[in-house]
Amino acid sequence: MEKTVMKPINVGLLGLGTVGGGTLTVLRRNATEITRRAGREIRVTMAAVRDLDKARPYASAGLALTNNPFAVVDNPDIDIVVEMMGGISPAKDLILMAIENGKHVVTANKALIANHGTEIFAAAQKKGVMVAFEAAVGGGIPIIKAIREGLTANRIEWIAGIINGTTNFILTEMRDKGAGFDEMLKEAQRLGYAEADPTFDVEGVDAAHKLTIMSAIAFGIPMQFERAYIEGITQITGADVKYAEQLGYRIKLLGITRRTAKGIELRVHPALIPARRLIANVDGAMNAILVKGDAVGPTLYYGAGAGAEPTASSVVADLVDITRMHTADPHNRVPHLAFQPDALSDEPILPMDEVRTAYYLRLRALDKPGVLADVTRILADLDISIDAMMQKEPHEGEEQVDIIMLTHQSVEKNINAAMTKIESLPAICGKIARIRLEQLGK
Ligand code: NAP
Ligand code: HSE
């Protein structure tokens, strides 16, 4: 039988930095394999950057370089626009314009999707085009596809993940080499892992963007980034990393979203995880995401969470998906948020004060009788029970000691109240270090 040769799909790139450059490299290197999979050639015909000189290494016949990104979204020959510039402006306007012009969109921009996804998906639905964002979460791990399609039979109960490569890299190096925070952040920037504004990484904002997206597709709720609880890793000290290890735990920046009877938890913060869990051994810039479905049980997804080609792997997967679905009836496509747009739920996000979890507390106290009794009385009065306790010997000539406590599960507002009371005791020196503790067992 004679084979019909399909017209190539023309792609316009917005950005040729870490991810954009990686995408072009992978598309070029694996062109034959990708065409065999997609059913037609996917070719990049136009790319926009700010600095044309920096983009010269990518120049080739058939690729027009411009410093005007609007020329890409307005080009009638472009079928798919791939946004890899980052930030909200002008990325949002460019994407909305591309949609308005009838183009499909692929983006790696989690900040944009978490903050403006609802508006973008509505515009795409109206125009019958696709907006794909696999690269926005977990770098090269196909987690969006797994949650949205592979686990579609399940009522998802919770998701917990290491979803920021930069902070996992910093925490790993602090633990293994005793390296300094600032030095490791610079290294993560050099390796292309960090966001343009690295405070997004270290303060947990980037992880919260990704968690917001996963929560929306897992539970069929709108994107609610503004309701996420966010705490980064800047308060984690070498001492906490060391004490956690001594107690059999690792400290990781976790994103957790969980369905509870009172609402949906949506929180990013450092957490102690039992060292025996697979996820506690995910090191460097690697990411791992645990998804618990009612039918399948816990499933774990692991891979490179940042960097040029791992992220490009996800971008190209979206390009192939769109190329295959290009001519399909829009009603037969997988919905952007996994659930039909008119079937989204209004389940509330649970305020952080109401979240129940366990805690690691490190107090610095004067080494004298009665201090521990005062502390434990305050905890007991607030219904907080202690699971384990460790008191370190004072250093020579010092009168203060470190006391480390692990609590059983308690309500966050009770822990906050207990910390305020304990900090006001005359024998307690300075602030209490508080890190949440997650068993991640069931
Ligand atoms: P990047 O290396 O800074 O690259 C950004 C690119 O966009 C550069 O080519 C830049 O051009 C271009 N650009 C920025 N603003 C522009 C404008 N107004 N007009 C034209 N071109 C513009 O950033 P990246 O690390 O690739 O990240 C891109 C996106 O992917 C972000 O949304 C990020 O969150 C996301 N992401 C990154 C990773 C990662 O590992 N890096 C992983 C997953 C997702 P010039 O170089 O000429 O300024
Ligand atoms: N800055 C992000 C990270 C890039 O470190 O995980 C990948 O999304």
Instruction: Give the overall average pLDDT.
Output: 95
- CATH architectural group of the largest domain: 3-Layer(aba) Sandwich
Give the overall silhouette.
elongated
Number of strands: 17
Evaluate the radius of gyration: 24 Å
CATH class placement of the largest domain: Alpha Beta
Biggest sheet details: 11 strands, mixed
Count of discrete structural domains: 3
- CATH-defined topology of the largest domain: Rossmann fold
Question: How many helices?
Answer: 15
Question: What small molecules are bound in this structure?
Answer: NADP nicotinamide-adenine-dinucleotide phosphate, L-homoserine
Which spans of ≥5 residues are poorly predicted at pLDDT below 50? none
Query: Structural class, from helix and strand content?
Result: alpha/beta
- Helix fraction, binned, reads 25-40%
Beta-strand share of residues: 15-25%
End-to-end separation in angstroms reads: 54 Å
Task: Specify the CATH homologous superfamily of the largest domain.
Answer: NAD(P)-binding Rossmann-like Domain
Pathway: Amino-acid biosynthesis; L-methionine biosynthesis via de novo pathway; L-homoserine from L-aspartate: step 3/3; Amino-acid biosynthesis; L-threonine biosynthesis; L-threonine from L-aspartate: step 3/5
Binding site for L-homoserine: 195
Domain ACT: 360-437
EC number: 1.1.1.3
Task: Describe it.
With 442 residues, the chain is of the alpha/beta class. The protein folds into 3 domains: 9-140 and 309-343, Rossmann fold (3-Layer(aba) Sandwich), CATH 3.40.50.720; 143-304, Dihydrodipicolinate Reductase, domain 2, CATH 3.30.360.10; 355-437, ACT domain (Alpha-Beta Plaits). It is built from 15 helices and 17 strands. Strands 7, 8, 9, 10, 11, 12, 13, 14, 15, 16 and 17 form an 11-stranded mixed β-sheet that branches. A 6-stranded parallel β-sheet has the order 3-2-1-4-5-6, with helices on both faces. α1 crosses α13 (308-325) and α5 packs parallel to α6 (110-127). The longest helix is centred in the N-terminal third of the chain and has 18 residues, at 110-127. It is elongated. The termini are far apart. NADP nicotinamide-adenine-dinucleotide phosphate (NAP) binds at residues 15-20, 48-51, 54, 69, 84-86, 90, 108-110, 135, 139, 192-193, 195-196, 306-307, 311. The site of L-homoserine has 11 residues, from α8.
